[in-house]
Amino acid sequence: MAVYFNKIIIALLLTLNVSLIAQNDDVSVIYHQVPGIVKDTLQRVHNDGILRKIAVGGMLSLNVGTYTYIDLSPDISYHFNKYFAVGVGGTYIFAYDNFDKTDYHVFGARAFVEGHFLNYIGLYAAYQVLNFVDPRPRSLDNRIWSNNISLGGGYYQRSERFSTYAFILYNRSDREGYNIYGNLLIKVGFNVFLK
Fold first, then answer.
1. Widest Cα–Cα separation across the chain
2. Can you tell me whether residue 99 is helix, strand or coil?
3. Within a 10 A sphere around the Cβ of 187, how many other Cβ atoms?
4. Which long-range contacts (CB under 8 A, 24 or more apart) does 20-26 make?
5. Is-contact 105 135, C-beta < 8 A?
6. How many whole angstroms separate alpha carbon 77 and alpha carbon 189?
7. Best label site of 94, 118, 144, 180, fewest CB within 10 Å?
């Protein structure tokens, strides 16, 4: 019985070894080949320079202490030329008050337009919608929408693959008592061009 069992184990090990070698040889060729249409499309995007016009970036605000405030606002923009760009972005804000032991979450989206002049001046206009809990009735089930328009300008500097900005914006909300940002907003951030 032991001899029969040893022969089965040896046969299984030899079969397993052969199948692993065969699998290794066949699969490596298949997974490293890119279909022609995908390769051609990627080559066109690379050659057209579209990646040179797309930038990703955004803004991160952090305040920790008695009142914790975290604002994460990523964005993506398309630069038609060195003077004009349009983009979209999102916003997530978390705030926590240590005295009241309350927190809130704000979600939002925005569309914006930027103008760049003289290699260091920028103008900025954005429409932003924000969703948050209505603080007045103290009901966690009552989320409201706020429409905001921000206009302003300031410093904008761009290099070949990187840009930074610091804008002073006037923010106007359709819900006067619920303006999350306040009327004066300072926006500092960066962008990285994809190529």
1. 90
2. coil
3. 20
4. none
5. no
6. 13
7. 118
The Cα 151–Cα 173 span in angstroms is: 12
Q: Give the long-range contacts of residues 72-80, CB within 8 A, separation 24 or more.
A: 73/189, 75/110, 75/112, 75/191, 77/112, 77/114, 77/191, 78/53, 78/54, 79/53, 79/54, 79/55, 79/193, 80/53
2/97 Cα distance (integer angstroms) = 73
Please give the single-letter amino acid code of residue 129. V
Tokens of 170: 């006037």
Residue type, 123: L
Stretches in the chain below the pLDDT threshold 70: 1-39, 41-48, 135-141
The residue behind tokens 């409201």 is 144
Report d(CA 35, CA 176) in Å as an integer. 56
Q: Residue 82: helix, strand or coil by DSSP?
A: coil
For the segment 117-151, what is each residue's pLDDT rounded down to a tens digit?
A: 888 999 999 999 999 887 666 655 688 888 999 99
**Coil, strand or helix: which one is 73?**
strand
Tokens of 141: 């089930």
Q: How far apart are the first and last CA of the chain?
A: 68
Closest CA to 154 of 106, 115, 184, 121: 121
